[in-house]
Please model this.
Amino acid sequence: MILTVAIDTPLRRAFDYHAPAGVARERLAGLQPGVRVRVPFGRRQSIGVLVGCGTASSVAPEKLKAALEILDDEPLFDAATLSLLCFAADYYHHPIGEVFAAALPAAIRAGAAAHDCEEAWTLTPAGQTALELPAGRRAPRQREILERLLGGDPLADDAVQGRPARAALAALAARGFIRSTVLPRPAATITHTVSGVARTAAQQTAVDAITAAFGRYAAFLLHGVTGSGKTEVYMEAIAASLAGDGQALVLVPEIALTPQLVQRFRARFGGGIAVLHSGVAEVERRDAWRAARSGRARIVIGTRSAVFAPLARLGLVVVDEEHDASYKQQEGLRYSARDLAVLRAQRAQVPVVLGSATPSLETLENVAQGRYTRLSLPQRPGGTPPPRIRLIDLRRVASDHGLSQPALAAMATHLAAGGQVIAYLNRRGYAPCLYCIACGWVAPCAHCDARMVLHRRAARLRCHHCGASGEVPSTCGACGQPLAPVGQGTERVEETMARLFPDAPLARLDRDAVGSAAALDAVLARVRNGEARILVGTQMLTKGHDFPDVSLVVVLDADQGLFSSDFRASERLAQTITQVAGRAGRGSRPGEVLVQTAFPEHPLLTRLIAGGYEEFASAALDERREALWPPFSRLALLRAEARDAAALDAYLRAAAEAGRGRAEVEVLGPANALMARRADHYRAHLLVEGASRSAVQRFLADWLPRIERLPAPSGLRWSIDVDPLELD
Ligand code: ADP
Ligand code: ZN
Ligand code: ZN
Model:
């Protein structure tokens, strides 16, 4: 019998082994794909996942090694999840072993029990004897653990925290004084508190449409402005889907930024909620995964990788803020969790709800084609009208460090009336460059084609692309004249606002100001309890926070996205402006939104202001149809980087040549990346464009193996990105 095993390695294939010695014939006969197998791999051992059993291998039998151990009786994944994982490996052309690795918590990858249990320790007779000896001075921690076990109650493994205590546990186990056992988990109780609010007619229509689709695949776009009550609809539909013993999967872009969402679910449903994301401690993640798999967790809330959570009784899938770019993983397995969530729902024959105030153009096109059903929540339940958006023409008004006079006047008015004010700028640091007025020299990054950003509080120059940092030079590197910071980052806006509004306490929300979840909580609390009156921040601001007293939002620089070469830049800009505008006027105050721009007649902005996101989106879709960009074509991007620019170019030319002459797709390039050098590597890419997903897939299946056989320059790294979000 031959076992085919997926192993966590960059090689794009699975590996064959003989069955392990000493395993009963019946057990082998009953083996199912999805169980873990310990195998020899190179000079080490590895734990892989069984993907197939057979009697033949393309490798000669005498060359095959035997697997060492079969770890599980049951597969790790239910059939639908397993098939989703295999699909992901296929579709994204990624090594299957790395796909499984991405789907599993580290502890499970390392061989920890998969069933839903609590690990605990008990005293052995040898340990008992050891305790009867007088306490020596050595190993007081070990002694303490033995004493805790003396009463006979097992000690839960999770209760033993800290590295020294863990080391003591390991030492005791090695000496045979304690032994590990497993305790079953008590069943979770899911409570269901009835919603405190009466649903609006639109909410009721949405809930009815979703519940009517239970038990089969159907995809819905829940389209509603921020604050229109989408989360209420999710919770109501989930409550209905849990009525049997079903499970629900809720994907969110970022949990750290939206702790309120998890709190609302806990308040509504009590126990039985598992939270799965990379920010939780490894032990909790393992437990959440086990609880999802066993069915103890009835609702799994998680970020991108939660789409792979094993949920045998899945009844409903929700993807909140479906347009959010963080659903696309940008390294390793470059998957779209949003797209896989829809496929998962299809495989499991359950409905999927994609929610957004600013749906992606792909999703809107799916609605237009009748593949998804749109459910609209046109109004906020409180009846607060949507905020008014106005453009400020930066060419015609005076500004103080990037803050225009009309914006400053509006801020003063709103602050005086007791409102809170948001200033949004998607640029960290103090100033994006340090400039010599005498000769035009700009402080460059030594490793990238990029400028160093001035961080004044830290008194450092930093490169936002490779992480390099250096001291702030006092004079020009070329001519010795003094240097001046040019342009604004959030740090500088904070400084300016503090000078102009000395009485209004200020909070800043960006990656430099908020380094940890605790720091984030502290900032959000200061805004929510009203202590901070002004909030300056980056993209972090646009994510789902509910600040009832914010009445004015100022977008300081809309122009960054107006003239980009990336065909998605305009969509992203429209989404950002709409999302950040949605922070204004969520409570009882009507909101006002000001957008500063030097191009107020740009059609993107005028359309967005006059017609709202929907009108913008329909025009943007027309443009994409015209230009044959996705979703009217399908793309894949081959990115490559190397230290030697000429060798990189030659390699990509050869790769392009290997793919020329197909009827169905075109290979464009090589083209240099926008930042042609980053962290001392030259970067370039080839773009594959085809009329359909299947055309691109057929091409890649044939082309990638040929590329792998091309002679590569030393140190070359390449990756394939199917349905890339960034074309760079
Ligand atoms: P979204 O998810 O679209 O941003 P939420 O579901 O968070 O919207 O709702 C925004 C606010 O409105 C919340 O405070 C919520 O409790 C409240 N809300 C939702 N639905 C109703 C309703 N039918 N009646 C009154 N308030 C509601
Ligand atoms: Zn100079
Ligand atoms: Zn750099």
User: Anything to note?
Assistant: The chain has five domains: 2-109, 117-184, 201-382, 384-431+487-623, 634-722.
